[in-house]
């Protein structure tokens, strides 16, 4: 791994660890209206991200096509609002481990789907690494009680996790990580309001108490602002396939932090699962290579690999440094 891919891997890892550590915050928001909480979380995150969007942000937004705006709306609806709603709905009839296991399969789906959308074959190292990550996530979380509805909503959560990465690929280049994060947060806040008003009426938004306010602030500032920007900066450098491998760190981080607040334990199964996740990430990200082969290459998000060019990131030809021409940071 070179400096660019190492930095991208660290950013993606940090983002997923923050998400995994946020499960404690989610546990204290059970009585707060879902749509109202999402509205406050994403609305505040958008306000904090706008000053960080950089120069020319308005011009970049005006340059987006209708198709790109539709993609952004789908990204917010599927990967943010829909994902969180699916997890909550699944946990009504299933133990939390069940949607967690399904979401842990996201690296496998992305490792297959992204190359197919690009018209190429899945990379063997990334696919093998994704399978190890999925098995590791299962070992960390185990399986729990569920029914048909719990499984159905868990599948929806998996679709949301996949959509959060895949739908962002074509709009990451023109917007950059910070402006993309600010834009999808604004769209997600609006979508939450649209869902909340008909679903909960006048009670869709209320003043949170001190504990709920602290949890919402953590989700908005740390998980959304810091986590989203780190995630998309990591994806910008190493591609969606390899970045999604790090989502296996979400259950690992959750399992590691659970004993600190007395909501779980970390035992031999969690340790073994964490080791499998680490091995899968190392193999798929290129830190380990299969015998007789080099590390996995990453194809530019906007097209196929040009002839006679070897890429080391999303559109990064070898020898041209870390910055990508025309791709905002």
TrEMBL record:
Q: What is this protein called?
A: Drug/metabolite transporter (DMT)-like permease
Q: Which family does it belong to?
A: Belongs to the EamA transporter family.
Annotated EamA domain residues? 7-139, 209-283
Database matches in Pfam families:
EamA
Cite the residue spans of the region called Disordered.
297-329
- Report the locations given in the UniProt record: Cell membrane
How does the entry describe its membrane topology? Multi-pass membrane protein
What is the native source organism of this protein? Streptomyces africanus
Name the InterPro entries for this protein: Diverse_Substrate_Transporter, EamA_dom, EmrE-like
Q: Which domain of life is it from?
A: Bacteria
The portions of this protein that span the membrane are 40-58, 70-90, 96-118, 125-144, 150-172, 179-196, 216-233, 245-262
Give the UniProt keywords, A-Z. Cell membrane, Membrane, Transmembrane, Transmembrane helix
Give the lineage. Bacteria, Bacillati, Actinomycetota, Actinomycetes, Kitasatosporales
């Amino acid at each position: 791994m070179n400096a660019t891919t190492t930095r991208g891997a660290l950013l993606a890892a940090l983002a997923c660890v923050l998400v995994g550590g946020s499960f404690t915050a989610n546990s204290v928001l059970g009585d707060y209206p879902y749509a109202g909480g999402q509205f406050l979380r994403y609305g505040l995150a958008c306000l904090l991200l706008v000053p960080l969007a950089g120069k020319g942000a308005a011009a970049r937004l005006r340059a987006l096509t209708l198709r790109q705006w539709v993609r952004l709306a789908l990204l917010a609806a599927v990967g943010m609002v829909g994902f969180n709603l699916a997890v909550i709905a699944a946990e009504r009839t299933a133990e939390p481990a069940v949607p967690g296991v399904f979401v842990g399969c996201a690296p496998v789906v992305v490792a297959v789907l992204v190359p197919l959308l690009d018209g190429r074959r899945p990379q063997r190292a990334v696919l093998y690494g994704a399978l190890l990550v999925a098995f590791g996530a299962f070992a960390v979380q185990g399986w729990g009680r569920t029914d048909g509805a719990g499984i159905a909503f868990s599948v929806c959560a998996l679709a949301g996790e996949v959509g959060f990465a895949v739908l962002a690929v074509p709009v990451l280049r023109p917007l950059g990580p910070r402006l993309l994060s600010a834009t999808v947060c604004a769209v997600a806040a609006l979508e939450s309001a649209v869902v909340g008003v008909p679903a909960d009426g006048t009670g869709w938004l209320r003043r949170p108490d001190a504990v709920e306010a602290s949890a919402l602030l953590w989700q908005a500032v740390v998980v959304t602002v810091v986590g989203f920007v780190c995630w998309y900066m990591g994806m910008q450098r190493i591609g969606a396939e390899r970045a999604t491998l790090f989502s296996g760190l979400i259950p690992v981080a959750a399992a590691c932090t659970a004993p600190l607040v007395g909501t779980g334990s970390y035992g031999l199964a969690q340790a073994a699962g964490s080791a499998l996740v680490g091995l899968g990430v190392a193999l798929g990200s290129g830190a380990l290579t299969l015998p007789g082969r080099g590390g996995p290459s990453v194809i530019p998000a906007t097209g196929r690999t040009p002839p006679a060019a070897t890429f080391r990131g999303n559109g990064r030809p070898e020898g041209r440094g870390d910055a990508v021409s025309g791709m905002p940071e």
